[in-house]
């Protein structure tokens, strides 16, 4: 709701503490200065799926998350950007290309 009011696009990062690929994505791509600069106008949210329980399973089912890590992009209006999800690891240069080709055109 806050992002909608502010007119900001959203990136939701679904991760788990036990997920090695999630940690690699966070330590390399999501902390890269160029990626951070490109994402400066986004609101970033993290959904912790570390505990496998009814709540985490319901969230994964609601957003159709089949594996981790999963990055899901939404417009400021709250609609998921089609064909913009990132599943698994992605290096910073490829992530920036993904933003340019799959995410930004939909905003």
Structure notes:
The protein has 107 residues and is α+β, with helices and mostly antiparallel strands. It has one domain: 3-Layer(aba) Sandwich (Glutaredoxin), CATH 3.40.30. Helices cover 39% and strands 18% of the residues. The chain is built from five helices and four strands, in the order αβααβαββα. Strands 2-1-3-4 form a four-stranded mixed sheet, with no helix packed on it. It is globular and about 35 Å long.
Describe, in short, the structure shown:
The chain is of the alpha+beta class and 107 residues long.
Attribute tags:
5 helices; alpha+beta; single chain; 18% strand; four-stranded mixed beta sheet; globular; 107 residues; Glutaredoxin
Summarize the helices and strands and which ones pair or pack.
Layout lengths: L1 H5 L3 E6 L4 H10 L3 H6 L4 E6 L5 H9 L7 E5 L11 E2 L4 H12 L4
Parallel strand pairs: 1-2
Antiparallel strand pairs: 1-3, 3-4
Overall average pLDDT: 96
Q: Which structural class best describes the helix and strand composition?
A: alpha+beta
Radius of gyration: 13 Å
Q: How would you sum up the major sheet? A: 4 strands, mixed
Helix content: 25-40%
Assign the CATH topology: Glutaredoxin
Instruction: Please name the CATH architecture.
Output: 3-Layer(aba) Sandwich
Span from first to last CA?
17 Å
Stretches where pLDDT is under 50 for at least 5 consecutive residues are none
CATH superfamily: Glutaredoxin
Provide the domain count.
1
Assembly status: single chain
Number of strands: 4
**Helical stretch count?**
5
Strand percentage lies at 15-25%
Q: How do the SSEs run, as a string of H and E?
A: HEHHEHEEH
CATH top level class name: Alpha Beta
Strand order of the largest sheet: 2-1-3-4
Shape: globular
């Amino acid at each position: 709701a806050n992002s909608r009011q502010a007119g900001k696009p959203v990136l939701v990062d679904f991760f788990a503490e036990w997920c090695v690929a999630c940690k690699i994505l966070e330590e390399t791509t999501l902390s890269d200065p160029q990626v951070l600069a490109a994402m400066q106008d986004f609101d970033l949210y993290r959904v912790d799926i570390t505990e496998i329980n009814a709540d985490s399973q319901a969230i994964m089912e609601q957003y159709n998350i089949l594996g981790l890590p999963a990055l899901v992009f939404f417009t400021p209006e709250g609609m998921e950007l089609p064909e913009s999800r990132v599943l698994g690891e992605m290096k910073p240069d490829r992530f920036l290309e993904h933003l340019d080709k799959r995410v930004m055109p939909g905003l």
